[in-house]
Amino acid sequence: MLTKRIIPCLDIKDGRTVKGVNFVDLRDAGDPIELACRYNRVGADELVFLDISATEQKRKTLADLVLKVAAALDIPFTVGGGISSVEDAKKLLRNGADKVSINSAAVRRPELINELADAFGNQCVVVAIDAKKVNDSWLVHLVGGKVPTLIDLNEWAREAEFRGAGEILFTSMDHDGTKNGFANTALAELTEKVNIPIIASGGAGNTQHFVDTFKKGKVDAALAASVFHFGEIHIPELKQILKKENIPTRII
């Protein structure tokens, strides 16, 4: 059985790690290089770096900062924000990223998924989906959650898989930063719709939430930010709890 992954996320704005609630009210969470070193040391399975203002500001990801963070890591490293072409992705992969995460650009031009998968392989392509529950449907939102669409979460995830995505990173905007738990019902449904790994994001507040998302949400990985950045949950302790719950995980 494949081990379940614990993934800290560095949301980057103006070169600093930040964290908000429901995608707004951002506060500083520390230096990304220092945080990367810490997570590498304590047993994180991967690290995600998201330049959250790149798309809104119509600029490319902070490639120089990616290079510095990558130098601190010997775990897989995913980078997203402002990637809209094969050339954008190539620069980040050259600077040390193992995978690239695409979101708004993929919705606007789905062929980008095919192009990246053809150029670098499916394993390098993560399609991030920010979605919010509207009435009874989970609808995709773009540009850091600021632009709503009528695109259904599950339909878009299936298309992303068909086009060559290797993983789906689903963030529930309703749960983001609330610390009330992951969107496990939606996650469980999503895992039934696609055959590629699903990363849960949005809502982690305590260790039980991770147990629940692996058991109830049936996900392959769980991503969180503030609970790790501010020391509310320590990854080694979390992994010991997962082990006791018979959830397979890598322990160093």
Instruction: Give me the CATH architecture, please.
Output: Alpha-Beta Barrel
Strand order of the largest sheet: 1-4-5-6-7-10-11-12
What gap, in angstroms, lies between the N and C termini? 18 Å
Whole-number tally of structural domains: 1
What is the total tally of β strands? Answer: 12
Order of helices and strands: EEEHEHEHEHHEEEHEHEHEHH
Treating each run of at least 4 consecutive H or I residues as one helix, how many helices? 10
Query: What global shape is seen?
Result: globular
The percent of residues in helical segments reads: 25-40%
CATH topology: TIM Barrel
Structural class, by secondary structure, is alpha/beta
Instruction: Please outline the major beta sheet.
Output: 8 strands, parallel, barrel
Overall pLDDT level: 91
CATH superfamily assignment? Aldolase class I
